[in-house]
Amino acid sequence: MFNKILIANRGEIACRIIRTAKRMGIATVAVYSDADADGKHVRMADEAVRLGPPPSAESYLLIDKIIEACKQTGAEAVHPGFGFLSERAAFCEALEKAGITFIGPGVKAIEAMGDKITSKKIAKEAGVSTVPGFVGLIEGPDHAAEIAEEIGYPVMIKATAGGGGKGMRIAHSKDELKDGVRSAMNEARSSFGDDRVFIEKFVTEPRHIEIQVLADSHGNVIHLGERECSIQRRHQKVIEEAPSPFIDAETRAKMGEQACALARQVGYVSAGTVEFIADADKNFYFLEMNTRLQVEHPVTEMVTGLDLVEQMIRVAYGEKLPLTQDEVKMDGWAIEARVYAEDPFRGFLPSIGRLTRYDPPLDVDGIRVDDGVEEGSEISMFYDPMIAKLIAYGETRDQAADRMGEALNRYRIRGVGHNIPFLSATIAMDRFRKGNITTNFIAEEFPDGFEGAAIGDYERGAMQVLAVAFARDDAERSLRISGQVANRGKSEIATVWTVREGRENTRVEIRPVEDGYDAVVGGQRYAVRGALDATIAVFDGNVNGEPFPVQIDRDGIYRALSFGGASMRVLVVPPRVADALDKMPAKEAADTSRLLVSPMPGLLVSLAVSEGDPVKAGQEICVVEAMKMENVLRAEKDGTVAKIHASAGASLAVDQTIVEFE
Fold first, then answer.
1. 288 annotated active-site
2. In the predicted model, what is the mean pLDDT of residues 518-529?
3. Nearest one of 485, 484, 539, 501 to 517, comparing CA atoms
4. 263 phi and psi, to 5 degrees?
5. What is the pLDDT of residue 91?
6. Residues 6+ apart with CB under 8 A from 355
7. Strands 342-343 and 349-350, how do they pair?
8. CA-CA distances (angstroms) from residue 167 to 162, 182, 186, 278, 476?
9. Catalytic one among 210, 226, 241, 288?
10. pTM attached to this predicted model
11. Which residues contact 127 (CB under 8 A, 6 or more apart)?
12. Strands 386-394, 378-379: pairing kind
């Protein structure tokens, strides 16, 4: 076995690979950019080598620097993780020339499957079902329009060297197509250094199903069942699971056979994923093959009991697969949620900054957390905004979903915006619980964006009671500290309080009991049992005998509470104070309708207007790039450009003014 391997990646995947290597007794080498000098993966590894400045083009994408690091440390092999150089044939080839083993497939397989046009041709030759489309390069918007007319709208525009949702657009009309081709080419050029795109028919009511394959250098090829990856936003997977609630045994066998046939066709060795799109009638079509470890690989590991990173390492060393296709068993259910540094309440815009609090739910049964951060870590604008992957396992899908919901409620992140409220709301939805999901799920369920989960009357009342309980406990503590009361419950603290949410008042009657509080809100009784003190960030007790893990924060004089994707910001006061506040005039919000501000920190790629230009509602004003994704900002209404506050190429802060209108 290898004595030492280098991990040519960062963040959670680097940490995940290091954990397996350590268990196997293999020494590890981390590489890092200046932005990751204090990264968790750097400290976990036995050795670490600096690559360069933060931009990936000047660090993690430098093949020569990584080979030099291998020679410097004596690393015999390199695991690329996913992203960066993981699917670059040139990287694999350079390692081979240097006598270093690439923990992944060979150059020919990467080249064949790395180009989506070539891969579709090979898939057809292997007898794999493919999506109708134009198997060739698009020369520009006009050429794309001709092809789309032949295929019929809607169509999918894809970067031929793409992945991770980059360089991908859906077009329902000629106008959308031209904008989509331009944006897809720009994103592809920025992310992959290759602006080639192609077009294929977009399948309606689609489900994204992928098959995990595993092959060794001795001719053995097996599949490990499917993963359902249909819940996506902007073609980026958000929630994945294994097995799929949609696929039956017969369809699974057919998909697996085709995936293995394709792997054999290209002489594939290592772990890889063959992605399919399936329609409502279980017809399925080949999309692409990812010649690397997938982000969502943990759900397959949880239901098969296999460590895919270990298998990749063993296969790269020349060992045979440890099992045959007949020996592959899928047991139970696993769901993965990707925790991103993004603000779901502001259109999922990327968020950067320092994790001032980071407390993953490691004590929940059946939960696995793959992360590459810790409290104090910095979320940088230079890389993917993923914070962690949260994986829940259960004997059934319902049990896995229940555990996921509890874990999300207990997952505490502060300092950056994050998508946990959105994940919590999605997991709790009846449509998700029934498995009625497609790649249109998010667009259909949140057509106007995410505004938080709806709070039922019972849940709202329970959260209000907890807010009062904490406030009352604070008041009693102050009396104890001042010596005015010796024992809990013997003070003259009020039993009636008002919870103000905005300008809405709710009366809460509350009385202390031996192990908590009894309360009444709107005729509903609540028995709160469990510890309540100033050090608690997540309530770990029960409400009416059921767990109710609410996160509670102080926000000045307010208290912020969150549960199940719903959140409240309330003020707890005596009734007389609430009456006085009702008499205060409401503060009017500042008028920002004349300003176009940057919704995120990023780079101002282009500016489409000049001072004095008239603009129409919906017209493109500028393009801002953040975390490798382009975002087109448009005028909200008709007007005239009064002043330009930033020029193309400028680095923008969140809420920084770009254009002012008359």
1. yes
2. 96
3. 539
4. -60, -40
5. 98
6. 373, 374, 375, 376, 377, 378, 379, 387, 413, 414, 415, 416
7. antiparallel
8. 6, 10, 7, 22, 58
9. 288
10. 0.84
11. 258, 261
12. unpaired
